[in-house]
């Protein structure tokens, strides 16, 4: 791919330049869980103290991964679960990640009828001071139809942000609806077609649009099919690591330049010290486990996918 000048006002351009700078499509998911926090971090079981611990833990993960990866993906559910204190902690984590020059993809899976969708978009999209939460991108459900997605895109484009629409999710039950066939195609391919149209209309200098698609590493054949059917659509891939997906499973999601996909790992990185190969780093050395798991993921993608063609930053 020949890249023109990249704009700092276009989401996919910003994503590409961040990924090229870090030399990896690895994305670190922040899904804090009270029972897995390192010892000593949790003062009590009150929502206020759990939220404070989530904020500290996530910021300390960010300290480790910020030099290594382009983006983080906080999962809103784990913060919202705690009520107002959790929502404040989420905002602080987003702010902290942005201050460390990371792109922040908020995994909220929001949507509603158009006017309400516009309010969600206002809340979550737009780096810096343009939105109260300050996310660079938001995950969005397609189930309410085209007029529920376009308000997100309008706000995203105005603010240099992006959205990722659920197309083929990583969970075992996703096919119950997503694979239903209508007019000769599974439902997820109809969603993919609409998302690709929007991506084409909103493409920047890299050829990728401000609209991306969520597609799981647990469905490698469909990933390959979607890469082919959606040439202007960036893929956000969950399901790697803890859910069983491998780097080889994700290989077909990348373009020839090693771009076009960003791959999430949440538990596998943040709670790496619970995995047998990093268990010697549990306790006081938990951040070393996070760093080693991130470096191992980066190495795996460099070995098994075209992401190995990205320039390798010194020190990684
Ligand atoms: O299809 C989907 C969409 C979103 N997710 C989210 O990604 C992370 C995965 O966490 P792991 O610990 O790496 O399994 C989590 O926040 C999910 O809600 C997904 O898994 N699949």
From TrEMBL:
SMART domains on file: OMPdecase (SM00934)
Q: In which pathway does it act?
A: Pyrimidine metabolism; UMP biosynthesis via de novo pathway; UMP from orotate: step 2/2
Domain spans labelled Orotidine 5'-phosphate decarboxylase: 25-282
Q: Which domain of life is it from?
A: Bacteria
Taxonomic lineage from the root: Bacteria, Pseudomonadati, Planctomycetota, Planctomycetia, Pirellulales
User: Any idea what this protein is called?
Assistant: Orotidine 5'-phosphate decarboxylase
GO molecular function terms attached to this record: orotidine-5'-phosphate decarboxylase activity
Reaction equation(s) it catalyzes? orotidine 5'-phosphate + H(+) = UMP + CO2
This protein's encoding gene: pyrF
